[in-house]
Amino acid sequence: MNGKVINVAIDGPAGAGKSTVSRAAAKEIGYIYVDTGALYRAVGVNALRIGADTKNAEQVAASLSGISVDLAFENGEQRVLLNGEDVSLEIRTPQASMAASDVSAVPQVRDFLFDLQKNIAAANNCIMDGRDIGTVVLPDAQVKIFLTASPEERAARRYKELVEKGSSVNYKDVLEDLIKRDYNDSHRAVAPLKPAEDSVILDTTGFTLEKSVNEIIRIIKEKI
């Protein structure tokens, strides 16, 4: 690998399993895993905490004043810190998910988090996932993958994950939220969700987690 830092960009819609698959693949090949969606969720949680309207761009931009969002890595596991507080669990609620979708459409939020993401990637072999990694954040990544699956399958995975965490949700609401989030993410003016021109499209509908991870690793090894 000639000593050069290797960056793998994995993009895709909500509920495609990006974080689960990316985390497992990174562990397998000894890279660090960077979940950029978690950073947007932290900004969303901060906005909710201070009572800002996440659909109001001015209020969201103002909510960035004086906050710090950082990633810490413990035993290869990513922890998300908001003003020094570990919010790794709080950012996984459905409210945080919708707030993340809202705040990610605000250019000031993207600018705020852009340098942090670039700096982590410049210093580490990493798998970074999100909505615009291959298109905007790491356009020079050696490997770009667009991970997707049918809306019904993605909603079923998300529903199962939420139920296992003790949330009382119903599948229909999860599917509706997901379809709404797909629309918002792909139609926003700033860095809309779309595959990079040189990305490999991987549809994991019907795949087990193991098969998805194996496919990701195969693509990485093939490209490198």
What are its keywords?
224 residues, alpha/beta, 5-stranded parallel sheet, 3-stranded antiparallel sheet, 17% strand, globular
Radius of gyration: 17 Å
How many helices does DSSP assign?
9
Main sheet: strand order: 2-6-1-7-8
User: Which regions have little confidence, pLDDT < 50, spanning 5+ residues?
Assistant: none
- β-strand percent reads 15-25%
Helix content: 40-55%
Average pLDDT works out at 92
The chain-level structural class is alpha/beta
Spatial gap, N to C terminus: 8 Å
Shape: globular
Q: What's the total number of strands?
A: 8
For the sheet with most strands, the description reads: 5 strands, parallel
Task: Provide the succession of SSEs.
Answer: EHEHHEEEHHEHEHHEH
Describe what you observe in this structure.
A hairpin with a 2-residue loop joins strand 3 and strand 4. The chain has 224 residues and is α/β, with parallel strands linked by helices. Helix 1 packs across helix 9, helix 2 packs across helix 4 and helix 7 packs across helix 8. The strands form 2 sheets. The chain has a 5-stranded parallel beta sheet with strand order 2-6-1-7-8, with helices on both faces. It is globular. The mean pLDDT is 92. It is built from 9 helices and 8 strands. The protein is 50% helix and 17% strand. The termini are close together.
